[in-house]
Amino acid sequence: MPSSTRFQRPKGELMSVSTASPPGRRSVGFFERLGQSRNGLGLLFMAPAALFLLLFLTYPLGLGVWLGFTDASIGRAGRFIGLENYEYLWHDRVFWLSVFNTVLYTALASVLKFALGLWLAIILNEHLPFKTFFRAVILLPWVVPTVLSALAFWWIYDSQFSIISWVLMQAGLISAPINFLGDPWNARLSVMAANVWRGIPFVAISLLAGLQTIPASLHEAAALDGATSWQRFRRITLPLLTPIIAVVMTFSVLFTFTDFQLIYVLTKGGPVNATHLMATLSFQRGIPGGALGEGAAIAVAMVPFLLAAILFSFFGLQRRKWQQGGGD
C-alpha cells in the first residue's frame, strides 16, 4: 500500500480557471483604452474633421455627379437620363470653346506665375535692405479679395478711361484707346494678366520658403569648384526645389483651372464666349440658365483635368524619396 494517497480528478472533469481580476486591478473601459492608444487618439481627433468633410464636401460632390445624369432644373427634381447631358456637350461648340479657353488660360497663366514667382523668390532670398518689408508687400495681391481686384482691373481695362491706354497714347505708341475686354484675344490676354498678378505672391513666397531650406554650404562648395551661378542653380537649386515646385504648381494649376470670380466680374464669359471657362459656363448653364443637370455635367467634366494635376504633384513628390535615399 503506498505511503501517500494521490487525489485523482475524475475523468472528463475539466479544471476550472478563474477569470476574476487580480486584487487591486480594475477593468479598463473602451474610451480609456482609446485615449491611451496613439492611433486611437489620432482617429478620435480626426473624426470631427472627417465628419465636416463628409457633410460639406463629399455630399455636394456626390449630388453634383448625380445631377449630371438627370435633366433636373430649378424648381424641378428631374429624372435619370443617363449620358444624354454628356452627349449633348460632346456636340456643343460653346462647351469645347470653354475647354480650349480653360486649358489655354491655365497653361499660360501657370507658366508665367511660376517663372515670375521663381525669379522674385530668388531675388528675395538674397541679402537685400528692407527685405522683410518687401516680402510683406508682395503678399498684397494675394491678400486683397478677388472681387475687389477684379473691379480694379475692370477700371484699368476700361475702353475709354484705361490708364494703360492713356500712358501709351501720351507716349505716342498708339492713336486710340485699346479695347481690352471687347476683343476676344485682348480679353483672353487681359484676364490672364489679372490672374498672373494675383497668383505670383503665392508662388514666390512658397518657393522662397523652399529656397531657404537649401544649405548654403552646397553653393559655397560648388563655387569653390568653379561652378557658375547658372550651373549652381541648375545642378543644386532646381533639383532640391523640385518637390516644392511640384506641390506649389499643383495648387496653382487647381486654383487657375477652377477660377470663377475674376472671369465673372471682368467679362462674364464675353465677348462672344471668348473668355468662358468651364467653371463660368457651368454656373451660367446651371443657375441663370436653370439647367442644373447640364451645369453639373460641365462641372463633372472638369474632374479628369484636376486629377491630372494631382498626379503631377504625386510624381513630383516621388523625387523626394529618391533625394532622401528612399526607394526608387
Automatic annotation (TrEMBL):
Protein name: Carbohydrate ABC transporter membrane protein 1, CUT1 family
Pfam families linked to this entry: BPD_transp_1 (PF00528)
Region of interest called Disordered, as start-end residue ranges on this chain: 1-22
Record GO biological process: transmembrane transport
Protein origin, superkingdom: Bacteria
Membrane-topology descriptor: Multi-pass membrane protein
Keywords tagged on the record: Cell membrane, Membrane, Transmembrane, Transmembrane helix, Transport
Gene Ontology, cellular component aspect: plasma membrane
Record field: transmembrane: 41-61, 103-124, 136-157, 163-182, 238-257, 296-317
Stated family: Belongs to the binding-protein-dependent transport system permease family.
Key word Signal present: no
Occurrences of domain ABC transmembrane type-1 (ranges): 99-315
Keyword Hydrolase attributed: no
Species annotation: Aureimonas jatrophae
InterPro entries: MetI-like (IPR000515), MetI-like_sf (IPR035906)
Subcellular location: Cell membrane
